[in-house]
Amino acid sequence: MFVEPEPGVFNFTEGDYVANLAKKTGKMLRCHALVWHSQLAPWVEQTKWTPDELKAVIKRHIFGVAGHWKGQCAHWDVVNEALDEDGTYRKSVFYNVLGEEYIKLAFQWAAEADPEAKLYYNDYGIERPASVKTAGAIRIVKMLKDAGIKIDGVGMQGHLHADNHPTMEDHVKTLTAYAELVPEVAFTELDVRIKVPVNESKLAWQKESYQFVAESCIRVPQCVGITLWDFYDPFSWIPHVFPDNGAALPWNEDWTKKPAYDGLIEIFKKFAKEKEDKEDKGKACTKKKRFVA
C-alpha cells in the first residue's frame, strides 16, 4: 500500500494504525521515510519530470506525510539510502532530475513540516569507519550543515552478517565520527543474518554482533537508541531478499530466544551494574566529605 498512490491523494490507514498503537502503549514513534528511491508509487518513476515539477512533488509529499503526523514522530528518516555501493550518489529519479539539491530541499521542508521532530539521514553499509559509504554519509551531513540546513542525526541501519560483522571498536569509531558532526546517532534497522543452516558457531557470532552494537551504543553518549528491524524470524525480510540467509532476529519461529537475546541482556545488566557501582561510589565519597567537614 502506497502512502501517496496517486498525485496528491494520501492514504494514512496503515501508518495511523502504528502511530495509534505507539500512543496507546506509551512507545516512542520513529518515522520512516520521507524520500526514498525504492517502493515508490509507479507514477513517480513513470513521469518525465522537469526540476520544478519534481520539487513540487517532493514538497507536497513531505508536507502531506510529515504534516499528518506532526508532533507525533520523535525522529524522521528524511532521506533514506541516497548513496550507491561505491559511496557516490544513487542514480534515483530524484538525483537524476535534481542532483544533490533534492537532499537539501527534503531536509529543509521536513524541518518546516514537523519542527519538533529530529531529522535523520539513514542508510545501510555506513557502520564501518573505513567504508566508502560512511565517507559518503559524512559528506551529506557536512553538505547540509554548510548550507545551514537542520540535520539532527545519522541512522546506521545495521543490517549485519553474523560471520563478517564490524568489531565493537569499528562501531565506536564510526559512531564517534558522526557524533562529531551531529547531536545524535542511532542504529535504526538492526538485524544480524546467518547463512543457513544455522549452527552453534553461527549463533555465537550473531550474539557477539548484537553485543557489539549494544555496547558501542551505550559507550558513545550521542547514540540515542537501537531499533530492531522486527524481532521474530517469521516477520523478517531477510529470507525474501537474501537467499540462503535467515534467523536474523532475537526470537525464533517458535518464540524461543536465540543466544543473541541473552547476549543483549548480558550487556544491559553489565552497564546497569557499572552505573549502580558508580552511583554507590559517589554516595560514599559524599558521605566521607561531609564527615571530614
Structure description:
48% of the residues lie in helices and 16% in strands. The model has no long low-confidence stretch (mean pLDDT 96). The protein is α/β, with parallel strands linked by helices and 293 residues long. Helix 3 packs parallel to helix 5 and helix 8 packs parallel to helix 10 (259-292). It starts with 12 loop residues before the first helix and ends with a helix. The chain is built from ten helices and eight strands. Strands 1, 2, 3, 4, 5, 6, 7 and 8 form an eight-stranded mixed beta sheet that branches.
Keywords for this entry:
single chain, 293 residues, alpha/beta, eight-stranded mixed β-sheet
| Shape label | globular
Distance between the termini: 69 Å
Order of helices and strands: HEHHEHHEHEEHEHEHEH
Instruction: Give the strand tally.
Output: 8
Number of helices: 10
Keywords: Carbohydrate metabolism, Glycosidase, Hydrolase, Polysaccharide degradation, Secreted, Xylan degradation
Main location: secreted
InterPro entries: GH, GH10, GH10_dom
Protein name: Beta-xylanase
